[in-house]
Amino acid sequence: MAPSAILLSLWAIFGLLASHCQATDYVLYSNPTTKLLSGQSLSYDMTRHGIPGPASLVMQEDCNLVSYYKGEVVWASNTTGKALWCYLYVDELYHRAEIIGVPTESSGLPYKYNLLVWSNDGFIFGGDSVFILQWNGVLGLYGPSIWSSPNEGEIANSSISSEETTDYVIYSYSVLPIGLIAKYKNFQLVLEDSCNLILSRTDTGKVLWQSHKFSGSHDCFVTLDGNGELFVTHGNREILWRSETRSKNYGIYVLALRKDARLVIYGPQAWSSTMPRKHISSW
């Protein structure tokens, strides 16, 4: 069988063919599972908006996972040649980032054997998690999920270009004024002049979710605190609306506008590529 046919067969076995990333995605989810396949990359490039960069994460065909910032290597898994046709994903059971591959011929293991090549240190207990490429090339794992908007999932408009990076992840301690808060393709989260926080589709105008809290102050902000609670404040920083889900664990949390149009808060940060790296080999 030709190598390309073997590759397609193996990716079908692993369930990978329908779960690849878009060109400017920079988040992998544990649920639903998204994967970074061999030869694919994540990208974060907001340089045209004055943010330093760009950053990228490449799952190289030699099985080495490499993060770049301004074209320079900032982190690598150091797994070159450890397996074939490797991919990166967030394990739904252990909620940790893992590189899985097919054994090399020299290993003596069958092709159908799933080989764990690398994982981050530790794992998250319960709940969903996200793996994020940050603006500076640093990688982070956040979880579990502690809050989500109640709207039904939506399918993004596939005709919208993926050439431009948009911010759809908000971090703890961000303080964002009236205007656009997050955007993913044709989904956007906006803090209106009335201080109502509203999630909608840009193609149809359909409102997917909103806070239903209003203020005449015209001076309001969105913020995510160090315990993962989302707030809209107004006036003298009085609380107008809050998500009312608060973790006992203090740290860095993220609010993600997911590709299914749902807002989800994950955290705290469980791992970062600035921490000591870990290499796991099963032979």
TrEMBL record:
Q: Which GO BP terms, alphabetically?
A: response to other organism
Protein name in the entry: Bulb-type lectin domain-containing protein
Organism this protein belongs to:
Dioscorea zingiberensis
Task: Write down the superkingdom of origin.
Answer: Eukaryota
Query: What InterPro entries does the record tag this protein with?
Result: Bulb-type_lectin_dom, Bulb-type_lectin_dom_sf
Q: Which range is the signal sequence, renumbered to this chain?
A: 1-23
Task: Supply the alphabetized keyword list.
Answer: Signal
Organism taxonomic ancestry? Eukaryota, Viridiplantae, Streptophyta, Embryophyta, Tracheophyta
Spell out the SUPFAM superfamilies in the cross-references.
alpha-D-mannose-specific plant lectins
- The UniProt record lists the Bulb-type lectin domain at 33-154, 161-278
Keyword Ribosomal protein part of the UniProt annotation: no
